[in-house]
Amino acid sequence: MSKDARNVPALRFKGYSDAWEKRKLGETNSYFTDGNYGESYPKESELSDKENGVPFLRGSNLRNGELIEDNANYITKEKHAELTSGHLVEDDIVLAVRGSLGALGYVKDENIDWNINSQLAVIRTDKSELSGKFLVQFLLSWRGQKELLSRNTGTALKQLPIKQLKDVPVPIVNLDEQKEIGALFSSIDNLIAATQDKLSFLKKMKMFFLQQIFPTKNHDVPQIRFDGFTDVWSHYKLGSLMRIDKEQEVKKELLTDIQKGFYVLAMRTFSMDGYIDHSKPYWLNHLDNVSDDKFLLPREFAILDADMDANLPKIGRVLLNASSEKYLLAAHVRKIQVKSGNDPIFIYALMRGNSVHERLKLEANGSISKRLLDKNVYKQSILVPNRSEQSRIGRLFFLLETTITLHQQKIKMLKQVKKSCLQNLFI
C-alpha cells in the first residue's frame, strides 16, 4: 500500500508517524468571506492613491502565494472602514474566485488591514485546528490546485463560489507538524525573496553602468571612467566592429516544452529585458549534424531581429550567454561575431544600452511581424574607446552578467526545491 493510500505523505519530519485526516474545508472551523460588497462597492470617487489610501487587492496582486502591491488599486480610508468584512488579518489566505482561479496569497504582518475586491475571497482558519501558513502551501501544491480548479463554474467567466470552495478536501494533522511544514516553506520563500531582491539590485546596478559608462548624446567621453583613461572615444559604424551570423532554422514541429535535449533560444524564450525567459521553455530532443555554429556558447551573444509586439520591446535586444551551458539558436535569434581588435563583451554592453536599442527599434519594418535588417544594424553610429579601456569595461559587465545569471539559477533551483516539497509533504 502506498504512503498516499495510508494517508501519510511521502516525506515527513522526524518524530511524526500518525496518519493524516482529510476533511472538507466547510467541515473545519474556518471563516469565509469575499469582496462582494453589493451597493457598498467602492465608486470611482471613493478610490485613492498609495500615499493616502488602503490597498484594494485584485487577482493580479496574488502571485506565488504572496500579496504583491505592484499595480494595486487603492480605496479611501473612510471606505475601507466601511468595508469591514474585507479587512485582512495575519495568517489569512486570500484567493481568486473570479478570473485568475488558483491564484493565492498569504497575509503576512505587512499585509494586515488591506482590503479585497470582488474577484477575491478570504479563508480565515481556526488556529487551534488549522494553520493558514500550512493550508496555503497545500492549496499551492498540485493536489490543492487540482482540487480548486476542478470546482470552477461558469463558461465565459470562470468562478469558484464559496459553496464549492467549502467542498475542497484538505489535510488535517497535529499543529506541531503543521508548524514544522509551514516553517520549512517560509524559509524557502524567504530565501527566494532575498535572492530576488539581490537580483533586482544587480540589474539596477547594471542599468546604472549602462547609462553612465558610455558617452551620452553630443559627448565623446562617458560620465564615469576607470582610472588612467582620458582619451576621447572614436566614431565608428557598428558594421565595422561586428557581423551577424546567418539565421539558424529549427523545425517548429520538433520543439517541445518537455525538458529533454537542447534548450532553444527563440523569440518566446528571449525576455523583454534581454535575458533567457525560463518560464516559457522550448526544447529540441534531437538534432542531426550538431556543430557549435548552431549554438550560443558561453561568453557569446546574440541579437533578436524580429518582434510580434506592436511596441517592439524585444527587437534589437542582445542577450549574453553568461552561463556554462550552450543554447540552440532558433529563428530570429542570431549570433554576433565581433571582429578582432575589439572586446566582445564591450560590444555586447554597448549594444545592450538603451541608446542603441531605441535606434534599432526605429529601423524595424514590416506589417504583422516586424523585422530588423542587418544593414540597418550595421549603419548605426557609435563611440568606441581603445582596446584597453574596452577590456576594462567588458570585464565589469561580464562580472555583472555572471553574477546575475548565478542568482537567476539559484532562484530557479529554490523554486524546484519548493515544487518537490509541495509534491511530497502533503497527501
UniProtKB/TrEMBL annotation:
UniProt organism field: Lacticaseibacillus paracasei subsp. paracasei
Keyword DNA-binding appears in the UniProt entry: yes
Name of the protein in its database record: Type I restriction-modification system, specificity subunit S
Swiss-Prot/TrEMBL keywords: DNA-binding, Restriction system
Annotated Pfam families: Methylase_S
A biological-process GO annotation: DNA restriction-modification system
Keyword DNA-binding in annotation: yes
InterPro entries given in the database record: Restrct_endonuc_typeI_TRD (IPR000055), Restrct_endonuc_typeI_TRD_sf (IPR044946), Type-I_RS_S_subunit (IPR052021)
GO MF annotations, alphabetized: DNA binding
Family: Belongs to the type-I restriction system S methylase family.
